[in-house]
Specification:
The relative contact order is 0.03. By secondary structure, this protein is mainly alpha-helical. Helices cover 98% and strands 0% of the residues. It has 1 helix and no strands.
């Protein structure tokens, strides 16, 4: 009997929740009012893009200055060429060291030949393992 008395109370609470939903509807309407404000801010951002365009033009003005600095670097280039010529003098020394390594190559070949001598031994051991 007591539980039946509680049922209408539950119904009341459901009605209260309906009231809350209507409040939610009101808040949605308020957000609609905010939309034109957002549109205004978008318009402001459009004005800022024109300012950005101005700044791009300013950077174009700086370009000839950059060209001057590039020309200065061209003046340095022959100095770099001289240093390259000096490195050419060192190149034959490097070639000599390569020739020395060629002298070592036959020694490496000998060691490879020695490893060939070991190969049949390995084959024998494999045959032994097959027999087991």
């Amino acid at each position: 009997m007591d539980s039946k008395d509680l049922t209408p109370v539950d119904m009341d609470s459901k009605e209260k929740s309906k009231d809350v939903t209507s409040v939610d509807m009101d808040s949605k309407e308020k957000s609609k009012d905010l939309t034109p404000v957002d549109m205004d801010s978008k318009e402001k951002s459009k004005h800022l893009t024109s300012v950005d365009m101005d700044s791009k033009e300013k950077s174009k003005d700086l370009t000839p200055v950059d060209m001057d600095s590039k020309e200065k670097s061209k003046d340095l280039t022959p100095v770099d060429m001289d240093s390259k010529e000096k490195s050419k003098d060192l190149t034959p020394v490097d070639m000599d060291s390569k020739e020395k390594s060629k002298d070592l190559t036959p020694v490496d070949m000998d060691s490879k030949e020695k490893s060939k001598d070991l190969t049949p031994v390995d084959m024998d051991s494999k045959e032994k393992s097959k027999g087991t």
